[in-house]
Design a protein that fits this description.
By secondary structure, this protein is of the alpha/beta class. It contains 15 helices and 22 strands. The longest helix is centred in the first third of the chain and has 21 residues.
Length: 489
């Protein structure tokens, strides 16, 4: 199977600012394939000057874009969606080459990205305000929804198509204009999506994108943080960076949406359907090789079903096919970079040193390449281990036995993070009792695949604030203007 593009023009290697592709730069950023280290493309390594030019364009375009009728904005988004769907195979190939995930999964991500564009095309025409019953005669009181202004979107590498679409689509639907920076490890998917947005007819300046290396990302983003015309920051990434953005946004009191780190628990109660629970864990844990923010990081299995569950799970894990995206039967690709693999190795070594038992996996697959890691199953894990305290962000399942519901809920909540949680049970009373007790923004009940364009995605505690997707995702790009008209009596 080849990852060659049917339409090579879809892969872009330039900033897009004020309706123009700009490639002049003092240095470039290499984009490499994590499967073999080969060079995929070179993009500009942006500077603060590029970020300011993008903000200038977005600010100028906002005055007219906000006045475009919602139906026309929706039509632009629908054309964009149609182009993304039409080019899904090539977009998937671009994504696989720069990020490493298997092609079938990459194409599925492209369609997931398209689902947000389609959803917010429809939501654009439903941004209704309120007529408030006046408490005294002779008044009319209204609550109007208006776009916040210029939005800066900073996206991660693990879902480089879906996350950029999940931020850009609601911003454009609300009437905002956008400056965005894709992840340094995987910028090509975002550039391709922006190229298709331009083809769909968004006016110059409405959507702008600046690429930058890890070294220069602070310079680019700080330019937007310092700019009072940029009224909102939307960021997906680490909690440490999210805290920095929140602190810096305070200087200009920007609206902020942060989707940050997670440490998701996955609980299997004694009355669970074990086959369903294993399937749910496989779906939620091994998507993108475990490199997802909602990936289960701590798995708690009731002692009475532990052995039966582990037997089923081991068989499923050992059947996974690991390989490069160009290999048609691959289910797990390479990790994104050497730092990611080193962290996985450190977590596994720490767990084993502290008493965990290795059931399967636990090594690099050097025969495939330096960034491939075997799907791994550990048992007898506990809260002292690094894998229980930090996101492993890789294909490692660490299982802990439990016997008491209250105890396992306390363990699940014993973290500074609160993005997602999962549990399996057939007890209807327990479903609502545990759902209420879990301190997370997302709960999967007898379900491992929770993400949807119709659902509000986001966390609590140090997993951030704000929501993406759903009607609440559109509201995050709007503010409320209260209007009180008197003298009508």
């Amino acid at each position: 199977m080849t990852l060659a593009l049917e339409d090579p023009q879809l892969q872009r290697s330039a900033h897009y600012i004020d309706g123009k592709w700009l490639s002049d730069c003092d240095r470039v950023l290499d984009v490499t394939n994590p499967a073999d280290g080969s060079l995929v493309a070179q993009v500009p390594d942006g500077r603060a000057s590029d970020a300011r030019a993008a903000a200038d364009a977005a600010h100028a375009a906002f005055a007219t874009w906000r006045e475009v009728p919602a139906k026309e904005r929706a039509q632009c988004l629908k054309r964009w969606n149609d182009l993304v769907v039409a080019h899904k195979a090539d977009l998937g190939r671009i994504l696989s080459r720069e990020q490493g995930k298997p092609l079938a999964e990459a194409i599925a991500e492209v369609m997931y990205a398209a689902s947000y564009i389609e959803w917010f095309a429809e939501e654009a025409t439903r941004a209704n305000g309120d007529v408030i019953p006046a408490p005294v005669p002779g008044r009319r009181m209204l609550a109007l929804r208006e776009p916040v202004g210029v939005v800066a979107a900073v996206a991660p590498w693990n879902f480089p198509a879906a996350m950029i679409a999940r931020k850009i689509a609601p911003a454009l639907a609300a009437g905002c204009t956008v400056v965005c920076k894709p992840a340094e490890d995987a910028p090509l998917s975002a550039l391709a999506l922006v190229g298709l947005a331009a083809e769909a007819g968004f006016p110059a300046g409405v959507l702008n994108i600046v690429t930058a290396s890890r070294d220069r990302t602070p310079e680019v983003v700080d330019a937007w943080l310092d700019d009072a015309r940029v009224r909102k920051i939307s960021f997906t990434g680490s909690t440490a960076v999210g805290k920095h953005l929140a602190r810096r946004s305070a200087d200009t009191l920007k609206k902020v949406s942060l989707e940050l780190g997670g440490n998701a628990p996955f609980i299997v109660f004694e009355d669970a359907d074990l086959d369903a629970a294993v399937q749910g864990l496989m779906v939620s844990k091994f998507r993108n090789g475990g490199q997802t923010c909602v990936s289960p990081n701590r798995v708690f299995v009731h002692a009475s079903v532990h052995d039966a569950f582990m037997s089923r799970l081991r068989a499923r894990i050992e059947a996974l096919k690991v390989g490069p995206a160009a290999q048609a039967d691959s289910q797990i690709g390479p990790m994104i970079n050497e730092r990611a693999v080193a962290k996985i190795e450190a977590h596994v070594a720490d767990a084993l040193a502290k008493g965990a038992r290795l059931v399967t996996g636990g090594r690099r697959l050097t025969e495939l390449g330096p960034q491939f890691y075997a799907p791994t199953l550990l048992t007898d894990a506990d809260a002292t281990m690094a894998c229980a305290c930090e996101e492993t962000f890789g294909p490692v399942v660490a299982v802990t036995r439990f016997t008491d519901e209250a105890d396992v809920i306390a363990l699940a909540n014993d973290t500074s993070y609160g993005l997602a949680a999962y549990f399996y049970t057939n007890d209807a009373k327990r479903i609502w009792r545990v759902t209420k007790a879990l301190e997370t923004g997302i709960v999967g009940v007898n379900e491992g695949a929770v993400a949807s364009e119709a659902g509000p995605f986001g966390g609590v505690k140090e997993s951030g604030y704000g929501r993406e997707g759903s009607v609440h995702g559109l509201a995050d790009y709007q503010h409320i203007k209260y209007v009180c008209e008197g003298g009508l009596g």
